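Final report, closing paragraph on structural work. Over the funding period we assembled a curated collection of sequence-structure pairs, and we close with a single example.
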Amino acid sequence: MRYVIFISSIALAVIGQILLKRGIQAQPFTFQLAGILKTLFSPLVLGGFVLYGLSSLLWLLVLQKFPLHVASPLLSLSYVLLFVYGVFFLKEPISPWNYAGLGFIVVGAILVAWK
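Its predicted structure, as stored:
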């Protein structure tokens, strides 16, 4: 059950980040009050914040069930999922250095999780 909570927390965080990205792409953000309110209350941004908030609540349960030195580094798997999303769906440019960094994240997560 603790792994379900862990995976759910990461999934909600990733989906929340994707919604925030899509929401900010849909309308430019400005530092004027009207622009801030329009951005904050757009459905995608609002949904992103809600999912990210739910992820944070689940993360509290994760911290209760896993040692911190294991849970925290494994959270970096969300970076991997967001990287993949950025490459395949947003067509973001990626350099060899980005791939190398991603490899280090994956290897680090495996080493931390290894028993």
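Residues 2-113 form one domain. Residues 2-26 form the longest helix (25 residues). We thank the funder for supporting this effort.
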